[in-house]
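Step 1: inspect the first sequence and its tokens.
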Amino acid sequence: IAVHDPVRMHGKFAFVTLALPKQPIQPTATYVLFEANVTSPLRHTPEVEAEVISCLARVEVEELENGMTLALGTQVATLVEKYGDSAINVLSSVISSGKVVPDVASHVLRWLGRINHPQSIQRRLWILMYSLRSPFSEIRDGAALGLASLGNPLAIPSLRAAIHHERFRALRRSMEAILRQLEAKQGAASV
């Protein structure tokens, strides 16, 4: 991997463009790097993990299919309010490990974009951008919708990459609409 451009800073975020070997379609990609404090890494306790898993285990997929997600959203918001980034770390781990069905993960990601918790914005943005690379279309869809709700233009490079790789036309179109929304917001902010 070779760095093409110098690291560009934007608030607490750093952007770097890398050349990726064996990527014939898109030889470079821009990644968002987050501020990290290596002396105090984000951790979680077994208590946080147990509470997150218990919350997700209670979700009935049939309720989600009928649009009844408020209870899940309230539980996710409560976990983030109570445990902050630790809850988000556990959610990320559980979602990426496949310990939760994709439909439930999708709705969790949507709610992570909707909740009002400024202290966790960086971590929620990260999990949503990371989830755009999931092998499950339901999770990619939930991540994109979460990013739309979050409305943070820092997700633009990740969305562009996801659009480039998305194989489902309907999901790609949805992502393109979200990208236009974020680009418009970015343009309005720069005026």
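Step 2: inspect the second sequence and its tokens, then contrast the two.
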Amino acid sequence: YIITNSLKEYEYDGVVSCDFETTELKDLSINKIISASVCIKSGNKYVSFFFPLYEQERHVFEVFIEFLLSQKKVIFHNYKFDCIAVREILKHLYPENWQKIYEEFSTKIEDTLLSFYVLNQYNSASIGSLDSLSFYTPFGNVKYKLSSKLGIRDEDGKGIVKQYRTNFNLFKEYNCFDTIITYSLFEKIQK
């Protein structure tokens, strides 16, 4: 796998996986989105790119969302949380027609959690977080190790912001690995 600063040099088929990191999961406004990452498959390599979004200017959100909207397919893991971030960005950028844009975007979505649950309906006890599902991918427990190193979840979201500011490279790797594992799961589901 590769974590890169640009996707321009890589060829891919218009399919990306995406993940957001936020300060919380319930009350999500635009200022609580910390970052997003995307992953493409170029040849036999997973290539992930990190978008820092916390306290960024409007144009940074525009570049990110325009990239996402231009894709053929966008894969999420447990989209019910990520869709809140997508909607908040669209509301912020396009207040007049965000709903129409969101409806069009929704036709491109794949959700690995939902797909994995459907395919493994008799073994649903093992379904859940990317930490647990990463064992179904070639990456084993890498995600779990990154989660343990960061220890970022807390009730007020301050832990995730602190890690973003003080341990940026590890945070970037953590966010990017979510998309790498999600893409890998998607491939497994497609077989």
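Step 3: confirm your contrast with the notes below.
The chain has a mean pLDDT of 81. Helices lie at 58-69, 79-93, 98-106, 112-119, 130-133, 142-150, 158-166, 168-190.
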